[in-house]
Write a structure and sequence with these properties.
Helix content: 55-70%
Oligomer: single chain
Strand content: under 5%
Number of helices: 7
Number of strands: 0
Structural class: mainly alpha
């Protein structure tokens, strides 16, 4: 009887394709965010949330630009109080970029966790952040 063998592993270049894509997206998002924050900060343009302007209720990202400016200035606590989702999202983005860079540049074996229901966890995190913003918003 012939025992089926495991298929040969994919070449390293193909095994790390998700990490390369993640690194490009993380760096691109960071650059776009920095450009947006610097333009909004130095142009002294008042960015008004259209949702809050129409309804009086803060959106899920209200205060995100101000929180990003505070992060860049190094005022982590004020940024966390203003919009925790932006601070945690920035930390996740930095962590993902560092992981991807380590896998690519040090030729490490990629880690593939089995995350069941991650979309629900992400939706719950956005909802909790929005509830926080609703609770601390001033009319």
């Amino acid at each position: 009887m012939i025992v089926p063998s495991e298929p040969p592993p994919l070449p390293w270049k193909f095994r790390t394709a998700p990490e390369r894509l993640l690194l490009v997206l993380a760096v691109s998002a960071a650059i776009l965010a920095l450009v947006f924050v610097f333009i909004s900060h130095y142009a002294h343009m008042p960015w008004v949330c259209a949702w809050r302007g129409m309804t009086g209720i803060p959106c899920a990202g209200c205060g995100g630009t101000r929180a990003a400016v505070l992060l860049i200035r190094g005022d982590w606590w004020q940024a966390l109080v203003l919009n925790p989702g932006v601070v945690l999202g920035a930390a996740a983005l930095i962590g993902a970029a560092l992981y991807s860079a380590a896998v690519i540049f040090f030729r490490l074996e990629p880690w593939r966790p089995r995350l069941q229901g991650w979309r629900w966890w992400l939706a719950a995190a956005v909802a909790v952040n929005w509830l926080y913003l609703l609770a601390v918003s001033q009319p």
